[in-house]
């Protein structure tokens, strides 16, 4: 399900977060005010940033360096008082009637659930694994997960509450066993937050090492419903075997595998896409001996490969005299050696699995990098000074500009394509100009460009100021 959030609704959530912490939020005359103690703990700050998708503000660096130029360029007014309290303010909406309480209530009357704000699967979640102590991981049979609370057999009643129940609103009554309490819950793959309510008292799962601050002064237990099993049927005498791959930035001691009768195994959650990996056995790196799929590792060896999802076919027409064509893009760290394309009768092709998202890419033909000549969509790479080809996988939102029949061309630009102009040409259908992209969960900024003139979305009352004083339209995405 697609969901469009209002910025004002989110700000009410921010108000709840900031209450009681020497932090506060106010909305006055169309401006947002955030008061933030400069000595806020890293955990609290990180949780706040992640939960409300404020990564573009780079608050961690700002509080450390006290360099506010970046925020000021983005339209924020910055003030700091003698108590070490930082106050940030910014224009967040244009219509004068946003100062009217009744109008604001109308805008914010539909409140999304926790699960809608933080879906189990989203673009910001690449992988996940569980870490339990004193008990085995929750039993999983197909889509059914058996949550287990060890002990507390003398309790009168225990409820299971989490992101999958909208917390207390639909908490599930657990069943008593001889060793604790259980509850079967049907879940899809991904990340979930939960707690137990024992005789009315809330508690985390003390046997679960994964915990997160929710930004509201609470700590919740975290559970990943796995969707992939890595199995190594060798090295039974090894002391330690770990899984490392592109999904965890090749961390060699993070994903410890469990010993089995035939070798080693680990269950994890993996997002859709292509993932490369190796096993680290007592410090030595190995390919998966039972997986023939492999890609060059850039060190005269190979990485094993797993894919989840459907492949996208990349194709370069022509270049029949070329000896080598390599695909490189944002999806594989622009590696110039990894994705060798196969020659066909009409060009070069490579099926490659990508998860939902927007990606940039280029072809490397006999050492020369070129954009895709058949793809009209591109994104500006300011670091390299190039225009890279742009592909959208599984679009989940359609932008619409109503009216403007007398306009010749309308382009869409926003943070999802690095504000590249002249690329995302909207199509005229009926009374609307439309274009579909994939938007990740959280906040996005955008504008329309009608016959060369930049404009905010006249059909969207939500906008915030920018460094040019012209404003950007705002949209919040969830599921």
Automatic annotation (TrEMBL):
<feature type="domain" description="AMP-activated protein kinase glycogen-binding">
    <location>
        <begin position="406"/>
        <end position="472"/>
    </location>
</feature>
<dbReference type="GO" id="GO:0016301">
    <property type="term" value="F:kinase activity"/>
</dbReference>
<dbReference type="InterPro" id="IPR050827">
    <property type="entry name" value="CRP1_MDG1_kinase"/>
</dbReference>
<feature type="domain" description="AMP-activated protein kinase glycogen-binding">
    <location>
        <begin position="237"/>
        <end position="309"/>
    </location>
</feature>
<dbReference type="InterPro" id="IPR032640">
    <property type="entry name" value="AMPK1_CBM"/>
</dbReference>
<dbReference type="InterPro" id="IPR014756">
    <property type="entry name" value="Ig_E-set"/>
</dbReference>
<protein>
    <submittedName>
        <fullName>AMP-activated protein kinase-like protein</fullName>
    </submittedName>
</protein>
<dbReference type="Pfam" id="PF16561">
    <property type="entry name" value="AMPK1_CBM"/>
</dbReference>
<dbReference type="InterPro" id="IPR013783">
    <property type="entry name" value="Ig-like_fold"/>
</dbReference>
<feature type="domain" description="AMP-activated protein kinase glycogen-binding">
    <location>
        <begin position="321"/>
        <end position="381"/>
    </location>
</feature>
<keyword id="KW-0808">Transferase</keyword>
<feature type="domain" description="AMP-activated protein kinase glycogen-binding">
    <location>
        <begin position="152"/>
        <end position="222"/>
    </location>
</feature>
<comment type="similarity">
    <text>Belongs to the 5'-AMP-activated protein kinase beta subunit family.</text>
</comment>
<keyword id="KW-0418">Kinase</keyword>
């Amino acid at each position: 399900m697609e969901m469009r959030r209002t910025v004002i609704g989110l700000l009410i959530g921010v108000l709840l977060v900031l209450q009681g912490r020497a932090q506060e939020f106010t909305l006055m005359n169309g401006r947002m005010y955030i008061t933030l103690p400069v000595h806020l703990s890293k955990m609290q700050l990180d949780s706040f940033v992640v939960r409300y998708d404020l990564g573009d503000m780079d608050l961690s660096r700002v509080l450390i360096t006290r360099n506010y130029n970046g925020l000021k360029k983005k339209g924020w007014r910055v003030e700091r008082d003698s108590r070490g309290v930082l106050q940030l303010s910014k224009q967040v909406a244009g219509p004068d009637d946003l100062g009217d309480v009744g109008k604001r209530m109308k805008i914010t009357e539909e409140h999304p659930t926790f699960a809608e704000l933080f879906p189990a699967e989203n673009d910001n979640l690449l992988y996940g694994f569980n870490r339990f102590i004193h008990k085995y991981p929750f039993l999983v049979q197909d889509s059914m997960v058996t949550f287990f609370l060890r002990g507390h057999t003398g309790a009168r009643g225990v409820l299971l509450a989490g992101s999958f129940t909208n917390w207390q609103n639909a908490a599930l009554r657990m069943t008593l066993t001889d060793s604790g309490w259980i509850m079967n819950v049907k879940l899809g793959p991904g990340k979930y937050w939960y707690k137990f309510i024992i005789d009315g008292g809330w508690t985390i799962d003390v046997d679960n090492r994964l915990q997160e601050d929710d930004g509201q002064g609470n700590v919740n237990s975290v559970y990943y419903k796995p969707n992939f099993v890595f199995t190594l049927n060798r090295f039974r005498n090894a002391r330690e075997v770990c899984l490392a791959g592109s999904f965890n930035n090749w961390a060699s001691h993070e994903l410890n595998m469990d010993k089995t009768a035939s070798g080693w195994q680990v269950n994890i959650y993996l997002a859709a896409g292509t993932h490369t990996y190796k096993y680290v056995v007592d410090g030595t790196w190995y390919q998966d001996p039972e997986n023939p799929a492999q890609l060059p590792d850039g060190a005269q060896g190979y990485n094993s490969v797993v894919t989840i999802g459907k492949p996208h076919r990349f194709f370069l027409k022509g270049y029949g005299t070329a000896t080598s064509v390599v695909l490189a893009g944002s999806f594989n760290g622009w590696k110039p050696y990894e994705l060798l394309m196969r020659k066909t009768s009409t060009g070069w092709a490579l099926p490659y699995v990508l998860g939902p998202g927007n990606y940039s890419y280029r072809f490397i033909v006999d050492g020369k990098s070129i954009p895709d000549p058949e793809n009209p969509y591109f994104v500006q790479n300011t670091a390299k000074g190039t225009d890279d080809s742009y592909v959208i996988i599984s679009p989940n939102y359609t932008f619409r500009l109503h009216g403007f029949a007398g306009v010749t061309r309308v382009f869409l630009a926003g943070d999802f394509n690095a504000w590249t102009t002249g690329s995302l040409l909207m199509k005229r259908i009926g009374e609307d100009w439309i274009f579909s992209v994939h938007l990740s969960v959280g906040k996005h900024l955008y504008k329309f460009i009608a016959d060369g003139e930049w404009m905010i979305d006249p059909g969207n009352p939500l906008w915030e100021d920018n460094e040019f004083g012209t404003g950007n339209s705002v949209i919040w995405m969830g599921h």
